[in-house]
Amino acid sequence: MPADKLDALPRLPRDDAGPVFAAPWQAQAFALAVKLNEAGVFTWSEWAETLGAELAAAGPSDSADNYYEHWLAALEKLAVTKGTMSRHDRLARRDAWDRAARATPHGEPIVLGRDER
After folding, report:
1. CA-angle at 81, arms to 77 and 86, nearest 5°
2. What's the rounded Cα separation, in Å, for the pair 8 and 36?
3. Rounded to whole angstroms, how far apart are CA atoms 117 and 113?
4. Residues 6+ apart with CB under 8 A from 51
5. Is 12 in a helix, a strand, or coil?
6. Cβ contact 18:1 at 8 Å
7. What 8-state DSSP symbol labels residue 115?
8. What SS3 class is residue 14?
9. Cβ contact 88:46 at 8 Å
């Protein structure tokens, strides 16, 4: 992405070479947004508006470290709004991930259902 376009996204995590993902889940969230757009679940305009609203709600002093947290929140909102999942399903999945994360030893991948073992 050209530097002038990156300047328009001051909170986008980056290094000297450009935008970066700090963790695999961030790249997966990015890919999910691309795939959902390609599948016609939402338009790029809807995506930009929803992500923009998430970033605006966080405020200008929000850390760039939170950028993909807002990305994920925007994806969740669009998934519910567009009917690809219910609000109940979203909350249930979030709870399942939270339980699995708490049950996962440090340094190991988080696996859904780990808390049920």
Report:
1. 85
2. 24
3. 7
4. 70, 71, 74
5. coil
6. yes
7. G
8. strand
9. no
pTM over 0.85: no
CB under 8 Å to 61, separation ≥6 — which residues? none
pLDDT tens for 37-50 read 999 999 999 999 99
- What gap in Å lies between CA 57 and CA 78, rounded to an integer? 16
Q: pLDDT tens digits for 27-80?
A: 899 999 999 999 999 999 999 999 999 999 999 888 878 889 999 999 999 999
- CA 110, CA 99: separation in Å to the nearest integer? 10
Residue type, 87: R
Q: What is the gyration radius of the CA atoms in the chain, in angstroms?
A: 16
Q: Where are the domains of the chain?
A: 22-85, 86-117
